[in-house]
Each structure stands twice: as C-alpha cells, then as structure tokens.
Design brief:
The protein is mostly helical. It is 53% helix and 5% strand.
Amino acid sequence: MRLGVDHPHYALRMCVAPARAFNMLGETPIEVSRNTCIERAIGTLKDVESIHRCYSTLMSELPPKPVSHEGESIHTHKEKIALARELWESGTYFPFPGIDSKEYMHMKAAEAEYPGYTTPIDTLIERFKDEGLKVVLGTHPESGNIFIIPAHSNDIENDSIRPQQLQMGDDMDARLKELITRSR
C-alpha cells in the first residue's frame, strides 16, 4: 500500500519501519531514544509534522544496517543493491515491460482506499509506456530501497513502483531482469 507523505499512517510507517529494521532487542541509548520517539509518534498520530521529525531523527542517528530480509542472505542483498546501483549510475532508460497482473490489482485496491495520495497507477503506466523507466535508489541505498520511476521523473514519493511489481519479459535487458528476479 502506498500512501502520500501527508497521510499520518504513511508518516508513522516511515517512523516505525527503521526501528523494525534495526531489530531493537537491546537497550542501548540510541535504541531507547528510538523507542521513545516511536512511542511519541504513535501517541500523536494527528500531528504529522512531529512524526516526520521523528522519522528524520531516527534516520540521522545511525545509517541503516545491512539486514537479512526474509530468506535473503546479506550477501545476496548486497549483490541486489550493487546491481541496482549499477543501473542507477548508468542513467539507462529501459522499455516498460508492464506491471504484473496481481501487483496491478493490489495497487488499484490501495489507490481506491487512499485516493489522491500518489500518482494513479494507470497514469503511471501511460508515462512508463511513453517515457520508459529508470532504476533509482532511496536516500539510504544500503537499506535496499530500490524504486522504478518514469524516465523523466525524479519523484520517488509519488511516481514509484518496486522492481518486483514489473512483468518479466523475454527481450528485456538482462540486468533489469536480474534485478526483478532478486527483488521477488
């Protein structure tokens, strides 16, 4: 589900996600401050600015640690990030292979539930068809935040999809195909 940056649940998700990624089981001072920040954010869901500040504080305290994602070794995760970085730095635009049909249905459902928070998926599809696509990395590339956006966009917040949401095509660039495979 993709929510716009002004939606309180988006901000809370952005605040809580780093805490989960850090696997906070110990009680070091940084982790205590993270827990306190998250508790405050949860208590002030109506105050979107506080939640955004909370997220910024979390992200500035310590860069994300490489973590093992469900069944994915750290080595494989780093290889996926290296591949995405290579595609990003090359500045290559790729033809749009289409969106996986199951992913499209999920995206349409999220769009219906939260209208207006991101660029509508049908609009994005038209832009992908017209412009092509490019691979970009988030603010902290080592965290694995890899996005697919229209070739002439720089708006990760509103115009992005995930690599695993793309269809695989026989005639697509081998590196892009590898990225999609590693992202699933």
